[in-house]
Design brief:
Elements lengths: L5 E9 L2 E9 L3 E5 L6 H9 L6 E6 L2 E5 L4 E2 L7 E4 L11 H11 L6 H11 L14 H14 L4 E5 L7 H17 L4 E5 L2 H7 L2 E6 L2 E6 L1 H5 L13 E11 L4 E6 L2 E6 L8 E7 L3 E4 L10 E12 L4 E8 L2 E8 H6 L7 E6 L9 E3 L3
Parallel strand pairs: 3-9, 3-10, 7-8, 8-9
Antiparallel strand pairs: 1-2, 1-4, 4-5, 5-6, 10-11, 12-13, 12-15, 13-14, 15-21, 16-20, 17-18, 17-20, 18-19
């Protein structure tokens, strides 16, 4: 029997709610996802050994970090973790090279130049090695922080909202490096965020929390494709589909293939054949009962309505099954009634090419 990469079973009474969390996940990048106050920080603090308030059991593979039944609580420095914070927390008086080497020094390991070189190449920080943190951008600092965490040779990497302090441009710079870390490192990652875009692009597994409990667990497509799960509000609703780069057109569009259907996006810096994930926001999808004609929108996905969720307000979320995968559309209840929509209705989903933001397109996990 294969052991899970990470096993977490926690109980803790807290102000306002009780933490009651159980999950086991395979290797890869696991996202703890939920709104503020859902318990994400309490979980990651317990895994890091920064809090002893919870009871339960935590293990990375076969290595037990905490077992309250045996009064076992390894201190943080013995848990063999790499921690990436919101702010990089680099030593200002040290060069980038010395900041990276600090991970080796603090763990008292001999120098390993090949490992150092691999991490530097992965993160593209070779030109930065002689600089001090004051001369780095926010994105560069965070790449160095990722490298320092990796060079500690951890059994598990913890990333606590590592992009929260960055603007959209810097987030776009860092996300591909987390994708590489997910795909090229055999170290499991526990990643905390409340941003649906980060979940869609990065997650191998999503553990969704609400009021201290696990309410969903699955792939990014499964969790984000559930119209009943809206931790960030209705504007965060959107489905995740996987596609392959088919061709780059001379007019600046990239054509993808998803389940045999073409999708056109503004130029994507990927090679032909590369597999991608993209998030399509529900509010950017228009529905038509007939095959649309004379529209500027290029992406038309035929499908069938699987479910209609109507809330207390004027809106409704419609789940569509298409050859490309599950697609969500946010429309008004008036439109549902006027179009006589119901489960089983054949429908066409229309998506403008420019509606899919560059930040919502990333590499599919290998």
């Amino acid at each position: 029997m294969t052991l899970p990469a990470l096993s977490v079973h926690l109980r803790q009474r807290m102000e306002g709610f009780s933490l009651d969390v159980d999950f086991e996940v395979p290797t890869g990048l696991t996202v703890l996802f939920g709104a503020s106050g859902s318990g994400k920080t309490s979980v990651i603090d317990a895994v890091a050994g920064l809090s002893h308030a919870a009871t339960g059991h935590i293990a990375v593979g076969d290595r037990v970090l905490m077992d309250s039944a045996r009064d076992l609580h390894l201190p943080p420095h013995k848990r063999q973790l790499g921690y990436i914070f919101q702010d990089a927390r680099l030593f200002p008086h040290m060069s980038v090279a010395r900041n990276l080497d600090y991970a080796r020094w603090v763990t008292r390991r001999p120098s390993d130049q090949p490992a150092f070189d691999r991490v530097v190449e992965m993160l593209g920080i070779g030109p930065l090695l002689s600089r001090r943190p004051a001369r780095l951008s926010g994105g560069e600092k965070q790449r160095v922080a990722i490298g320092r965490a990796l060079l500690a040779r951890p059994k598990l990497i913890l990333a606590d909202e590592p992009l929260a302090a960055l603007d959209d441009a810097r987030k776009g710079e860092i996300l591909p490096y987390f994708e590489r870390l997910r795909d090229e490192s055999d170290v499991p990652i526990l990643y905390v965020t409340h941003a649906a875009t980060e979940v869609a692009r990065l997650a191998t597994t999503v553990v969704a929390l609400e009021a201290g409990r696990v309410i969903r667990q699955g792939t990014a497509a499964e969790v984000l494709g559930d119209p009943g799960f809206t931790p960030g509000g209705v504007r965060d609703i959107g489905a995740v589909i996987e596609a392959r780069v088919a061709t780059h057109h001379p007019d600046g569009l990239t054509e993808l293939e998803a389940g045999g259907l073409p999708l056109f996006l503004p130029h994507v810096e990927r090679s032909i054949g590369d597999k991608l994930r993209l998030r399509i926001a529900a509010q950017d999808v228009i529905l038509s009962k007939a095959l649309p004609a004379g529209l500027s929108a290029l992406n038309i996905l035929p499908g069938t309505i699987a479910d209609i969720r109507q809330g207390d307000g004027p809106g409704a979320v419609i789940s569509l099954d298409t050859a490309a995968g599950r697609v969500l559309a946010r429309v008004t209840k008036r439109s549902v009634q006027a179009m006589a929509l119901h489960p089983g209705t054949a429908i066409f989903a229309v998506v403008k090419s420019v509606a899919v933001a560059p930040g919502d397109v990333g590499a599919a996990s290998r």
